[in-house]
Q: What sequence folds into this?
C-alpha cells in the first residue's frame, strides 16, 4: 500500500492491514488480517441498510481483496490503556491504596 504523505495532513497512521478473510456478521462483515506491524487485526463493518444475498456476496469478495490504512487525528496524543492505568495508580508517597478509596 503506497504511503499517503500529504503535506499538512493532520492524521497519523495507526495501522496498515492486509485483509486475509471476511466473515458474515449479524448486520455486516467481520474482516481479519495481518498488519504491517505483524499484529493480527479484526475490523467490524456494520451496514445500516438491508442488503440482499447477492450484493452481500459481491461486497464480501471485494473486501477480501482489500488493504486498509487506519489513520487517526486527535486533540490529545495517543495513549495506551496500560499508560492510563499506570497514571491512575497511587503516586509515590501516597499512603492510600486504590482499593481503599471508595
A:
Amino acid at each position: 500500500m503506497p504511503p499517503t504523505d500529504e503535506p499538512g495532513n493532520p492524521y497519523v497512521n495507526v495501522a496498515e492491514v492486509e485483509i486475509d478473510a471476511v466473515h458474515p456478521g449479524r448486520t455486516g462483515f467481520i474482516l481479519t488480517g495481518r498488519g504491517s506491524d505483524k499484529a493480527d487485526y479484526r475490523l467490524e463493518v456494520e451496514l445500516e441498510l438491508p442488503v440482499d444475498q447477492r450484493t452481500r456476496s459481491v461486497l464480501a469478495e471485494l473486501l477480501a481483496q482489500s488493504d486498509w490504512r487506519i489513520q487517526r487525528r486527535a486533540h490529545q496524543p495517543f495513549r495506551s490503556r496500560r499508560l492510563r492505568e499506570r497514571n491512575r495508580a497511587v503516586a509515590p508517597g501516597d499512603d492510600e491504596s486504590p482499593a481503599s478509596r471508595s
Observations:
- Residues 22 and 60 are 6 Å apart (CA to CA).
